[in-house]
Structure formats: C-alpha cells, structure tokens
Write a structure and sequence with these properties.
By secondary structure, the protein is α+β, with helices and mostly antiparallel strands. The protein contains four helices and twelve strands. A three-stranded antiparallel beta sheet has the order 1-2-3. Strand 7 and strand 8 form a beta hairpin.
Length: about 180
Amino acid sequence: MRSMYFDYKRNEEKELPVDGSYVRTAVMLSKYNIPYHIIDETVMEKHAVVDSNKLKVGNCESNYVIFPLTYTMGSFCADLFETYYENGGKMLFLEGVPTFKEGQSHEYSFKSNVDMESIINAQEFTISDRDTEIQSTHRVYEGKEYIYAVNLSDDKGYTVTFNGNFKGFDCIDLETFETK
C-alpha cells in the first residue's frame, strides 16, 4: 500500500482495485470468523522469520497467509514468502500471484496451495451459519480465551451456534458490561 500512496486521487469517489480487494478480504475473513492480522512489509523486514512451515512476525505466528490483490512485493518479503512456501507454508492468493518484484516484472515460484474451505475448517471454532451478518474474532487475553461476536445488521436477528472446544460461556453486554 505504501508504494501506491502517490497514485491516489483523493477527490475521486470510486474505489481503487487494491483498496476494494483489501476491504473485501477483511470482510470475508470476519464473516467466516477467521482471526487475522494485517502484515506490513516494513514491519516484516524488522520482525519476520520463517520457522519451519510457519510465518512469525514479532509475537504472532501464522499457519496461513492470505493475499488480497497484490501487484508487487519488495525483495525481502518476496524472498521470505519463497522460503515459507518451500517449507510447506500455506498461501492463498485471492486474485492471483503478484507479477512484480520491486516494481520489475517477475515470475514467482509460489502459488496458492490451500483453499478457503480448508482454512475455514482448520479454525479453532466454527459458526453454524455463514450467511448471516454475524462477525466474530477469537482472542486470548491474560490467559483467557474470548470470542467477540457482533451482529452488524440494523434490522435482523440471527441464531447461530459456535462450535469448538469451549469450557464455558458468558455473554457480556458491551453497553453495561454485565455478564449473563
């Protein structure tokens, strides 16, 4: 994204292809209840390593890397993802593999080696109905696991079941912070 900054026409209302793909990817992952982190190339250069078939960026470890529309990669990230792929790391390119490295035409040796359904099925919890406006995320805080779920609809209610290895369940009202 950083390299595209000067190409933006801020006064135009239309969506740019990379922006649209990025937003669609984030919405899709939230809808499918897949926790995710956004990886920045600058941060990766300082903190990313490949450990076997996992990508580690700081304290975060990823089993899968999902790419929205991506035109180019910097050399460090391109080489890192080549190593990740060669070590069996799982990568999904939603709109094709990039065709540039450092802005120059380049053919990468990696390609998608996992599909979205496999990523969904590998999650620690699933939701019974994906065709709702319920979005959720799973986090661990101070040793406790949390699923934060929200209904984004203004006028529809949904009944869904979260399936997973849960020891208990509390519902917290985010307006009053009361536990039910």
